[in-house]
Structure to design on (303 residues):
């Protein structure tokens, strides 16, 4: 395999917040139209794992999780412990860089939050410096007097970019409740817009063509849409069996897209899962966008 096709470790975070008298909301941001990956798509905060995320010098500035705990929660016993813990750090770093959210504890043990315009401006300046790699996460923790709250992240799923793509990522999806006192704002550099939406609204906007979702985001939101409350989702995720999802590209006549591991016709044996009746199992290109379909006995059913 060409080195460019080797998947790079990455992390992405599904930010969750309660909404009165309605389903909870998720935070989505739109990538620039000239982005090299997922251009124009609405995505969750996230990005690739950096070498600095895995260094031991960050360990004194984290709480709630050990490297062994990280392996257990990710359900990946063969992953190097430093990499497992680094994925949690990457999730926090990328969420800070892209959405301005920083899950952390004060030295008092309280959840970190800011008050006052001066503090907010200083915080945003530090966010920019982290994004530009002018300051490390270790130094950020020292300046703010915080410890990163890894226990506020909950692993949810594991996706790998299809083998046909030249740029590939080995991505762990995490759930995270919005910290009290913080406000999500896209970075206005790599991302041009952001919205809080219920999962149901996000799906409606996508299928109406007003936003564009990539297959992993679309499938994840479909799953989130089956839960009406964050608490219910969180409890289900804690006992969830995380099995790696490597979509399989296919082209059959005029139809083209990807099959998911539980699709009856999926053929990559190392990742194949039992068929799940009634669940969408492939995502196809239709009218310039991605559409989920359910295949049972070779009969396509629209969700």
């Amino acid at each position: 395999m060409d080195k460019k096709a080797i998947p790079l470790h990455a992390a992405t975070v599904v930010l969750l917040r309660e909404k009165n008298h309605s389903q909870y909301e998720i935070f989505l941001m739109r990538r620039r139209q000239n982005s090299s990956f997922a251009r124009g798509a609405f995505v969750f905060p996230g990005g690739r794992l950096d070498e600095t995320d895995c260094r031991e010098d960050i360990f004194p500035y984290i709480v709630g999780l050990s490297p062994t705990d990280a392996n257990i929660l990710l359900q990946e016993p063969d992953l190097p412990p430093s990499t497992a813990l680094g994925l949690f750090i990457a999730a926090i770093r990328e969420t800070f860089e892209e959405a301005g959210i920083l899950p952390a504890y004060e030295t008092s043990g309280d959840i970190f939050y800011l008050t006052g315009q001066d503090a907010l401006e200083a915080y945003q300046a530090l966010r920019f410096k982290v994004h530009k790699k002018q300051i490390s996460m270790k130094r950020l923790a020292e300046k703010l007097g915080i410890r990163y709250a890894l226990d506020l992240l909950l692993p949810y799923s594991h996706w790998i970019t299809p083998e046909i793509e030249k740029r590939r990522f080995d991505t762990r999806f995490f759930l995270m409740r919005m910290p009290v006192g913080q406000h999500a704002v896209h970075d206005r550099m790599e991302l041009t817009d952001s919205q809080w939406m219920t999962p149901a609204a996000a799906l409606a906007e996508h299928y109406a063509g007003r936003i564009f979702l990539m297959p992993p985001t679309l499938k994840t939101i479909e799953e989130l849409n089956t839960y009406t409350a964050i608490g219910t989702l969180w409890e289900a995720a804690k006992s969830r069996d995380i099995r790696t999802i490597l979509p399989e590209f296919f082209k059959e006549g005029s139809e083209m897209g990807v099959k998911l591991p539980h699709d009856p016709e999926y053929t990559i044996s190392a990742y194949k899962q039992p068929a799940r009746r009634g669940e969408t199992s492939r995502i196809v290109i239709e009218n310039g966008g991605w559409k989920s379909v359910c295949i049972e006995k070779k009969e396509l059913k629209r969700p």
